[in-house]
Design goal:
Layout (H helix, E strand, L loop, with lengths): L4 H8 L7 E6 L6 E6 L2 E5 L4 E7 L3 H9 L1 E6 L5 H6 L4 H4 L8 E3 L6 E3 L4 E13 L2 E13 L8 H4 L6
Antiparallel strand pairs: 1-2, 1-5, 3-4, 4-9, 5-8, 6-7, 8-9
Length: 163
């Protein structure tokens, strides 16, 4: 059987995804970075686990491997421009947090976007390298709510990342 490439792309793009800013740091906590994450989901209640799939060629991937931690700031519907700002590689745009108010999470030291719905901080407890991304399993070790609101979804932006 031959895979119908267009059908595959169409159907994979129908899987709903939220949009998050994933904040990362190096082991020493001296260097920070962030990227727009969309391949994220809850994986367990006890312990509370989050699955975060990260492109292996990114600077952020190396920082997660080195430090063993990451934070996910949940974006609000209407924060499409903020998500777009963090889609660009750091080597092209420099410090992505320069014009975004953020603070270091108490549990991980990773940057958290102050103007987000809230966040989870995670300690990596496992990973699987398959294809061009690594599936990081992170145990939630910190969390906070900034405000109520509807989360931003990939579908609502009109962008495609998948397929």
């Amino acid at each position: 059987m031959v895979l119908d490439e267009q059908a595959k792309k169409t159907m994979l793009r129908k899987i709903p995804h939220g949009l998050y800013i994933c904040g990362v740091r190096d082991q020493a906590g001296e260097e920070m970075n962030g990227f727009t994450a969309s391949w994220v989901m809850q994986g367990s209640f006890k312990p509370p686990l989050v699955i975060n799939c990260v492109n292996r060629e990114s600077v952020s991937h190396a920082m997660i491997v080195e430090s063993g931690v990451f934070a996910l700031s949940v974006l609000e519907a209407g924060q499409k421009e903020l998500a777009a700002q963090f889609f660009k590689p750091r080597r092209r745009v420099g410090n992505k947090f320069e014009e975004v108010e953020c603070y270091e999470g108490a549990a991980t030291g990773c940057p958290i976007v102050a103007d987000s719905l809230g966040y989870v901080e995670c300690k990596v407890t496992g990973s699987v390298e398959q294809g061009d991304h690594t599936v990081f399993v992170g145990e939630v070790i910190g969390a906070g709510v900034h405000r109520e609101g509807e989360p931003l979804t990939l579908e609502s932006t009109g962008w495609n990342y998948g397929g």
